[in-house]
Amino acid sequence: GVLGEWGWWLGLVFGAGPLLCLAAWHAMDAWYRAAFFLKHGSQRRLPPGHMGLPFLGETLSLIWHFKLARRPDEFIAAKRRAHGGAGAGLYRTHLFGSPAVIACSPAANKFVLQSPDNFGARWPVPELVGITSVVNVEGAAHARLRGFITAAINRPSSLRTIAAVMQPRIMVALASWADMGTIVAATEIKNVTFANICKMFISMEPSPLTEKIDKLFRDLVAGLRSFPLDFPGTTFHSARKCRRKLNAIFREELEARKKVGRECDDLMGGLMHMEDEQGRKLRDEEVVDNIVSLVIAGYESTASAIMWATYHLAKSPVALAKLREENMAVSKSKGASSMITHDDLPNMKYTAKVVEETIRMANISPMLHRVANRDVDHNGYTIPAGWSVLVWVRSLHTDPGNYENPLTFNPDRWDEPAKPGTYLVFGGGYRICAGNMLARLQLTIMLHHLSIGYEWELLNPDAEIDYVPNPRPADGAVMSFRKLST
Question: Which residues form a coiled coil (predicted)?
Fold first, then answer.
């Protein structure tokens, strides 16, 4: 009867369903291997690994490890177990809608990052980070933009000016947190970092408009590592809409500056006046593309790193005591001035170790996106032309073979330099992050003012960690925060 019919259907779903998935799983990998064999014969080999399910690839496995199990390092560890050790440090997979090779050893990562002829930059969806922005363009255009950005925000002379501009806002923010007594560190740190970046990059003071821009950036960043499904309700669809709205806001700012001939000594003003060898200026969309991308790069990752510094220091009283001692001495040597300058940095050796250890453990960008421009051979394997290449830097920073007790916060490990090729927090090769010194400076300034004037405790020290879209405690690092009792 009816029960028998239901039983038949349930048997089909629970019996045949998994079998069909398993068949599809094997068929997908077999299809890619067969296509590779037909093109290259038996002389060349794909890296070990598996292509996963049709269309989805191994995206579900990635989501499982990063979002549900909250064990992101297990994603690569499982590959190492399944496919025979670290080997060449290359694995085939299918992620973000594209066949891909993961590079996850110092040698393989160095090979990819330092071979610009073989590998170009390619984000899964270039428009989200800006098609004509410095993170996507190649060749002379990339070199020119990168040179300008480095001069504007990464040279010692620029960093001197930036240090002076940033500190008053940071000092006011910290005092206001102490008045609140309890803060969500991730939110408050992001607010002050975003306000400083807006001031430096686009000469905007906090307003309803910058609040709107901040929310748009938040939703855009969430889409950078989402699966590229573009229909209403998906994270990716929302990110594309946010990118278009941000482009419109910055284009309006650009038009307003041109109309009134407003000269601003900021990053946007510099991009507007940049010229190539023929005296050609950037097109409006190039200025907009780059400024949107630079604001993302300038504040999201730095705010996250500062939040992790407060988190780890709250759990590491010995490290915090050493940090306080060094910064109190620097502060005393300044006399009446409460602000540090770029020239104080050489005297802040322990602070520098805290900065490097924080950035290593934060792993804000677990991977870097590249594409194979041609068939490339490495260590006996072929990376096929057109495939994505994911340089998995997170695996370097959390590997016990590279760092002793890698998940323990230990600034003193930086008494010795990292093993060559194992520290790629800012990428590597000719595309190393153009703002790496600015990020370190922002962290150093924040640590200085925190350590000389305040104390804090995590209210949920055992809160779970979310890893998508960026690593952070699930509660945003809620903490009690007060002035240091002298």
Answer: none
Give the predicted TM-score (pTM) of the model: 0.91
Q: How far apart are CA 11 and CA 17, in angstroms?
A: 9
For residue 420, count other CB atoms closer than 10 A to its CB: 9
If asked whether residues 35 and 179 sit together in one domain, one would say no
Residues 89 and 149 in one domain: no
More confident residue, 186 or 54: 186
Q: How far is CA 486 from CA 286, 364, 453, 455, in A?
A: 52, 35, 9, 11
Question: At how many degrees (to 10) do helices 208-224 and 284-315 cross?
Answer: 80
Among 87, 115, 143, the domain-final residue is 115
User: Is 315 inside a domain boundary?
Assistant: yes
pLDDT digits (tens, 9 = 90+) for 210-250: 999 999 988 888 888 777 778 888 888 999 999 999 999 99
Q: Are residues 51 and 168 in the same domain?
A: no
Which residues in 82-109 are b (16+ Cβ under 10 Å) and which e?
ebeebbbbbbbbbbbbbbbbbbbbbbbb
Give the bridge partners for 455, in sequence order: 482
469: preceding bond cis by omega (within 30 degrees): yes
The pLDDT of residue 190 is above 90: yes
Rounded to whole angstroms, how far apart are CA atoms 264 and 466? 39
The structural domain count of the chain equals 2
Q: For residue 14, what pLDDT is reported?
A: 67
Q: Where are the alpha helices (DSSP H) in 67-105?
A: 74-82
- What percent of the chain clears pLDDT 90, i.e. is strictly above it? 52
| Structural domain boundaries enclosing 325 | 129-363+398-483
Instruction: Tell me if 81 is assigned to some domain.
Output: yes
CATH number for 427:
1.10.630.10
Q: How far apart are CA 403 and CA 414, in angstroms?
A: 10
Q: How confident is the model at residue 83 (pLDDT cuts 50, 70, 90)?
A: confident
Query: At which of 70, 92, 115 does a domain end?
Result: 115
188 band by pLDDT with thresholds 50, 70 and 90: very high
147 and 72 in a common domain: no
Is position 433 annotated in a ligand binding site? yes
| Position 386 in a domain | no
